Amino acid sequence: MSHIETDLIHSGKTFNNTPAVVPPIYQTATYYAADNAVDYAKAATEARHPYFYHRHGNPVSSQTAELIARLEGTEAALLTATGMAAISTAVLSVVKAGDHVVAQHSHYSAANILLKELLPQFGVEVSFADQSDNASFDKAIKANTTLIYLETPSNPNLALTDLAYVGALAQKAGITTVCDNTFASPINQRPGDFGIDIVVHSATKYLGGHSDLTAGVICGSQAVVDKAWKKLLSLGGALAPFDSWLLLRGLRTLSLRVRQINENALALARWFEKQPLVKRVLHCGLPSHPQHGLAKQQMRGFTGMLCVEIDGEDEQEQFARAQTVLNHLRIFANAASLGGVESLAVHPASMWGMHHSPEQKQKAGINDGMLRISVGIEHIEDLIADFEQALAKCSD
Ligand SMILES: *Cc1c(COP(=O)(O)O)cnc(C)c1O
Out of 6, 196, 330, 333, which could bridge 2 as a Cys pair, Cβ 3.0 to 4.6 Å? Predict the structure, then answer.
């Protein structure tokens, strides 16, 4: 096996039976005009046949999935239409009525709805652990626990879960683990290396990297992925051919992008630490992060995600100032999503307000002055200058 930088460029070409350098897009819903009924039946019943019907698979998706499995160090992977399709398909391929799930206080908002509303509708009970406290996972486990659902670093408060600890705990108890690795990207963290069974991503974010597609991926053993594939046939979240192709194209530059993003985010976080108007900076790469030691143990880079808390006399002023800063940023767009080449910033207290009570917001580590920032690959001096002028507007 070559180095990952080389594999990112050269894998995914075996279906390219033309002399072209880049694989073709198979822009079709149905792939197989069979010569005879026996061949047709064989294609229809074979698991993950890449030339049958779009929900079963398609050639570029198979190649892209293989490359992502290589990145995560898992046996296999399965692409889905969105990150949430990956999460719901993975979770529903593990749990059944009567089971109990352990999750965390802090998760991506739509994953929270799945855990708090959807699973209970199907007779699955869910408890929530404090991810920064290993013992709270031990305490939450019951006799009927079949799944521990993790996300690290978590959205938006960048809390970490000790993957080796929870991985070992779950293995000992025979419980399946799923980890959302979207915020880290496989360049910075591979949960499978710490005994986690299933890794899911919103490939819309770092994997795609250009904010021009939505996709998800489920990574794990061949058996796990085959099981998820069967569920995906019914749940319907298959990835379209063009988006699979765009995702493969985006992946070519993953290691370069993530390296630059890691560097920019750390430099910006260090600069924020020196700004009087910034009360607190949260970035896994800063020694001031409450779990920096754990970050160094399980992450190879610290991602482009950071949170800053704008200071103020009271919560109202913090809320108003965070909005002032956001309204004056020129390079950072105030837009949902993250992990692209362009820098984005959002105000979680406004976004999360719709789905969460004040207590839930507090538990999830969200406060009124907080801005969540996704750092891109622009020049670092321009990124700093943008925040410098926007912060100055608070004292105008
Ligand atoms: C965006 C995101 C998701 C959902 O992904 P979609 O592609 O939008 O469905 C899940 N988890 C995390 C951590 C995310 O940031």
Answer: 6
Q: What is the DSSP letter of 239?
A: P
Q: Is 55 a catalytic residue?
A: yes
Please report, for the domain that includes residue 332, its CATH number: 3.90.1150.10
* DSSP string for 208-235: T-SSS---EEEEE-HHHHHHHHHHHHHH
Question: Would you say the pTM of this structure is higher than 0.90?
Answer: yes
* Contact of 391 with 327, CB cutoff 8 Å: no
List, in sequence order, every residue forming a beta bridge with 103; answer none if it has no partner.
Answer: 128
Known catalytic residue at 270 = no
Residues 268 and 230 grouped into a single domain: no
Q: What is the pLDDT of residues 294-306, one digit of tens each?
A: 999 999 999 999 9
User: Quick check: helix, strand or coil at residue 294?
Assistant: helix
Which residue out of 84, 150, 373 has the highest number of ligand 1 atoms within 8 Å of its CB and is therefore the one to mutate? 84
Q: Quick one: 98 and 233 in the same domain?
A: yes
Q: Is 96 in the same domain as 177?
A: yes
182 lines ligand 1 (CB under 6 A): yes
**Catalytic residue of the set 180, 197, 243, 386:** 180
Catalytic (active site) residue 396: no
- pLDDT tens for 308-336 read 999 999 989 999 999 999 999 999 999 98
Handedness of CA 30, 33, 37, 39 (dihedral sign): negative
Same domain? 225 vs 95: yes
CATH number of the domain to which 209 belongs: 3.40.640.10
- Verify that 102 and 242 share a domain, yes or no: yes
Between the CA of 160 and the centroid of ligand 1 the distance, in Å, is 17
Into how many domains does the chain fold? 2
